[in-house]
Amino acid sequence: MIKKEPWREFDRLYTLYTLEAGKIQALAKGSRRSLSRMAAHLEPFLITDVMIARGRQIDRLAGSDEVINYKNLDQSIEKVALLSYCLEILDKLTSYGQADKKIFNLVKDLLEVADENHLSYERTLLLSRIFVLKLMTYLGYEPEVHECLECKRKVGEEGLYFNSARGGIVCSECVQNSGNQVLGQMAVTAPVLRALRNCHETSFRGFLEIYIMPETVKPLEILIDDFLKYHLDGDIRSEKYFYQVFA
Ligand SMILES: [Zn+2]
Questions:
Q1: Ligand 1 centre and the CA of 208: distance in Å?
Q2: Which tens digit of pLDDT belongs to each residue from 14-51?
Q3: Which residue in 24, 19, 21 sits closest to 47, CA to CA?
Q4: How far is the centre of ligand 1, averaged over its atoms, from the C-alpha of 244 (Å)?
């Protein structure tokens, strides 16, 4: 479940990410009036089997069955903050009705990893940004992290820039040739590039094995956020909460 909103007096409009139909919206009749069984199955940290009745204007939830309940998640405000952030990004970047098994499994993995592990601040931050990188890759915004976007040459680790608009690295020669037009491009240090490659190439679950120097986490976060925000409209509402929780 991505989010729920009140609808008329007694109903609720749910936004769900489903395996078979991607992101959908469906109305649950009367779910605010009573603590119906269905409402209990439609909490954020559950995987639920839902039956949808197609409506003329809006689809309706016709039935639900809880499949997996990640019980540890709502016990920790840090984990709630992490998941609120990731689910908001999922909502903002995806369109309705486009099924994608890889994205469904990415969200499922996120819930599992967060449920099973103790997460420090650095780990939580890293997990959220790896989620963003993987999600953007699946949506067709895969960043180029080995070749210069301009001259297509394989690059080393030194003297590089990251271009968020085009999603990838540019070598210093190409930056110089373009008259140092570094607008929208930021310098990337070797450890940050190494960390970015690692996050991009490691499986989502494999992130626990990655070691990233604490001083690299912040610049990596700035780079991924800049890349993300280039593709997002408006603010990320849960971002503030995310930082408040860890302050
Ligand atoms: Zn180049």
A1: 33
A2: 999 999 999 999 999 876 665 567 788 888 888 999 99
A3: 19
A4: 40
Burial of 189 (0-12, 13-18, 19+ CB in 10 A): middle
- CATH of the domain spanning 1-69: 2.40.50.140
153 CA → ligand 1 middle, Å: 6
Residue boundaries of the structural domains of the chain: 1-69
State if pTM tops 0.70.
yes
Ligand 1 centroid to Cα of residue 226, in Å, is 21
Backbone φ and ψ for 78, nearest 5 degrees, come out as -65, -45
Distance 160 CA to ligand 1 centre (A): 9
Report the C-alpha gap between 77 and 81 in whole angstroms. Answer: 6
